[in-house]
Amino acid sequence: MTTSETTTTSPRLPKLPRNGVDTPALLATITAVGNQPELAQFKFRAVNRWISGTHSQSRMAPFYGAGSEHTHATDVAYDADHPAVLVAADRGPTPVEFLLHALAACLTAGIANIAAARGVTLTEVESTVEGDIDLQGLLGLSDRVRNGFERIRASFKIRGDAPPEKLFAIIEQSRARSAVYDVITNRVPVELSIEVGG
């Protein structure tokens, strides 16, 4: 969302927090980044360690942004595994389920921010994100089946103090600006470096 979008969609910029969003700080951040684009450069990191079988754990490492390094307020770690039906111990969600979570969380965060900037108070936002995957690809049983999701569907229920068309426009704007939606729907180069030891 750009500053110009905020000013054209609302005659008065919101001066109070809304939807749990510090709206004045959000708008000040948008202005600051608009004036100093180098502040927009961020680098997020995750460090993953194998535990056993298909069970691993990722920790969200310090990240770079707004010109310096930052650490999260709390130590954030996530376990991932495969379910029993895939011959594992089900010690956490599967990696592809994390992808669905990331998409839902990114779109929801965008909805909250955009609604706050447009002066809309939300009372409910709920989504269901579902992905179809054919395991023949990743199991090496077919070269004609892709390894990842073939299709993802996201459905949203949203309520707030605005007409339906404005609430719909908020979701559409969130989709248009979502980092995770962009990563999923556009090819992102992934570099893999390998260190081999005995």
Summed up:
The chain is 32% helix and 22% strand. The protein is an alpha+beta fold and 198 residues long. It has two domains: 134 residues, K homology (KH) domain (GMP Synthetase, Chain A, domain 3, 2-Layer Sandwich), CATH 3.30.300; 53 residues, no CATH class.
Q: Assign an overall shape.
A: globular
Structural class: alpha+beta
What is the CATH architecture term of the largest domain?
2-Layer Sandwich
CATH class of the largest domain: Alpha Beta
Helical fraction equals 25-40%
Q: What is the CATH third-level topology name of the largest domain?
A: GMP Synthetase, Chain A, domain 3
Portion of residues in beta strands equals 15-25%
The gyration radius over C-alpha positions equals: 20 Å
Task: Give me the count of strands.
Answer: 7
Q: Kindly report the spatial arrangement of strands forming the biggest sheet.
A: 1-2-5
Q: What is the name of the CATH superfamily of the largest domain? A: K homology (KH) domain
Largest sheet: 3 strands, antiparallel
> Helix segment count?
5
Description:
Helix 3 packs across helix 4 (164-177). The protein is 32% helix and 22% strand. The chain is α+β, with helices and mostly antiparallel strands. It is globular, with a radius of gyration of 20 Å. It has a three-stranded antiparallel beta sheet with strand order 1-2-5, with no helix packed on it. Strands 3-4 form a two-stranded antiparallel sheet. Mean pLDDT is 91; it is low at 1-11. It has two domains: 1-39 and 94-188, K homology (KH) domain (GMP Synthetase, Chain A, domain 3), CATH 3.30.300; 41-93, no CATH class. A hairpin with a 2-residue loop joins strand 3 and strand 4. It is built from five helices and seven strands, in the order ααβββββαββαα.
